[in-house]
Write a structure and sequence with these properties.
Blueprint lengths: L4 E5 L18 E6 L2 H7 L6 E4 L6 H9 L3 E4 L8 H12 L6 E4 L6 H16 L4 E4 L3 E6 L5 E3 L4 E8 L3 E8 L6 E6 L15 E4 L5 E7 L13
Parallel strand pairs: 1-2, 1-5, 2-3, 3-4, 5-6
Antiparallel strand pairs: 6-7, 7-13, 8-12, 9-13, 10-11, 10-12
Helix pairs in contact: 3-4
Length: 230
């Protein structure tokens, strides 16, 4: 099983701007995480598998699910793993690491849920997967350094680098206002916060550790002097 992408859709605050995201069940393997099924069916997209305890799924869509041929993995509400952790275990067991993992509706909302999602995405990255959170105003790439991250989208206004391991070393960037040349970033410091793209294509490469690359798109550049905006 080698899909183009693995798309996980959660039950968090929904994305409204999805014009740049084309989900195709013919090429993408789609996982509905509990109430994420509501969003998928609203978009008339049928997932390949449902994983969850049904605590955030509407009753009408639960009945649809029961009568559908979608693969179902039901779990009790009182369990030790989140729906996304269960999905990550499924992904690791079923798919090659060449398939990138895209996470929709899994940012914002409750901080505890997001921090848990971030930690689990780190584990997927440690297993070799490329993981990306997609949001309306911000995306997050979880990089394990296996390959350079190339950002060709000119609509990013700020790029921040945050280590998910104690140290991320050997970081080299291209076309960022504040460049790094084979340097390290540390979890207890803020050096990687709020950088600025200055070219059509930005490149970020690192050698060791897990790095979160936070991409703000749209709006004004936070580093522009407010007295110079007029």
């Amino acid at each position: 099983m080698n899909p183009r992408r693995i798309v996980c859709v959660g039950a968090g605050p929904v994305m409204h701007n999805t014009s740049h995201i084309q989900i195709d069940p013919k090429w993408d393997f789609i996982i509905a995480l509990d109430g994420g099924l509501d969003w998928l069916l609203l978009k008339e997209i049928v997932p390949h598998v449902f994983i969850g305890d049904c605590d955030s799924l509407t009753k009408i869509n639960f009945q649809w699910l029961e009568n559908s041929s979608v693969q179902k993995q039901y779990y009790p509400k009182e369990k030790d793993e989140s729906d996304f952790e269960l999905a990550s275990n499924f992904i690791v067991s079923q798919f090659p690491t060449t398939a990138p993992v895209l996470l929709l509706n899994m940012m914002g909302g409750r901080t505890d849920h997001f921090l848990s999602n971030l930690a689990i995405s780190k584990q997927l990255s440690l297993h070799g997967f490329y993981v990306e959170f997609l949001g309306d105003v911000e995306d997050i790439i979880i990089s394990n350094g296996a390959k350079p991250i190339e950002l060709a989208d000119s609509h990013y206004t700020n790029i921040s680098l945050y280590p998910l391991t104690e140290v991320v070393s050997g970081i080299t960037t291209k076309n960022l206002k504040y460049p790094l040349h084979g340097e390290s970033l540390f979890q207890n410091a803020s050096r990687g916060l709020s950088n600025v793209p200055i070219g059509e294509k930005c490149t970020i490469l690192h050698l060791q550790g897990i790095l979160a690359i936070l991409l703000v798109h749209g709006g004004k550049n936070e580093n522009i002097c407010r007295h110079c905006e007029h």
